[in-house]
Amino acid sequence: MVARTSPTERQKRVGLELHKMRVASGVSAESVASLLGVDRSKISNMERGLRNISADRLRSWACHCDCSDDTYVTALTKLAQPESPGWWERYRGALPGGLLDIAELEANAARLRTAHTVHIPGLLQTVDHARTIFDVAVPPLPKREFELRMVHRMERQRVLMQDDPPEYHCVVHEAALRMQFGGRTVVRAQLEHLMHMSELSHIVLRVLPVASGAFPGSGQTLVYAEGAVPALDTVQIDSTHGPEFVYVEAQLAKYRDQLDWMERLALDPEASRRFIHDIARQL
User: Fold this and answer.
1) Fewer CB within 10 Å, N side or C side of the chain?
2) Which domain, by its residues, includes 76?
3) 10-residue block means of pLDDT along the chain (283 residues)?
4) Kind and range of the H or E element at 120?
5) Is residue 4 part of a domain?
6) Phi, psi angle pair for 111, to nearest 5°
7) Residue 86 falls inside a structural domain
């Protein structure tokens, strides 16, 4: 198999975990190559996410590196070998890879925790609200890409409506609720949609009022995706040049603390619905 040149975030994450496992055990790349019966260069490519690794080889790798955490190894094996291509693969080559990585991250998450200061969460946006977001892209999006992004965003939302959806805990700042994206009619429909979605048992939406004052990470949009095991947690942060993904435990701990802080400051779910309702009535 020819090595790929542009691994997905999932593939890079699997490679990173293989590298961490090997380095932590003090095992050389040559030793693993000999065990698996491959060239040394293929080990490097596996650790960079440029080559796939089979389930059997991954377990052999873990055993050779004295990794006895079977729960972690099983979760990593499932991450390395998806049962089937995800729906987002239909957009490969037509949309930026980072958008597909976000969809894959959401699909693989055991639980999602998010915080949004200026924008309504993508998974909770109405079609008209999302359209106003893409309308102001810089530079303007070509018509075909605009429509593909719209369809892709709406398809992403199915993760919350599937038979066994992940828990979704979301903090939305009051500023995002008051943004006049699309005008009053669009905003009112968006707020009503938020109230409806917040009634679902697996969705916990909290509003952070302006009156709550300062909070850590203000202005930042982040998604904390819990993996099948804590060692596979990931944070995704929005930026103007595309999504950024964070895996380092020290940084993950910082973002967990940030989300905990915001949730403590925010209103409880019922008070949040009343807060959203009051804003909608003012429009």
Assistant:
1) N
2) 9-80
3) 79 97 97 96 96 96 96 97 93 96 97 95 98 94 97 98 97 96 96 98 97 81 96 93 92 96 96 98 93
4) none
5) no
6) -155, 150
7) no
The CA distance from 4 to 18, in Å, is 17
228 vs 10: CA distance, rounded Å: 13
Quickly list DSSP for 159-225.
Answer: GGTSSSPPEEEEEEEHHHHH--TT-HHHHHHHHHHHHHHTTSTTEEEEEE-GGG---TTTT--EEEE
- Cβ–Cβ under 8 Å, residues 77 and 58: yes
Give the sign of the dihedral formed by CA 261, CA 262, CA 265, CA 266.
Answer: negative
Which tokens go with 204? 């916990």
Q: In the structure encoding, which two tokens stand for residue 206, read together?
A: 């909290």
Domain with residue 20: its CATH number is: 1.10.260.40
- Nearest-Å Rg of the Cα atoms of the chain is 21
For residue 170, the cross-strand partners are 114, 205
pTM for the structure as a whole: 0.94
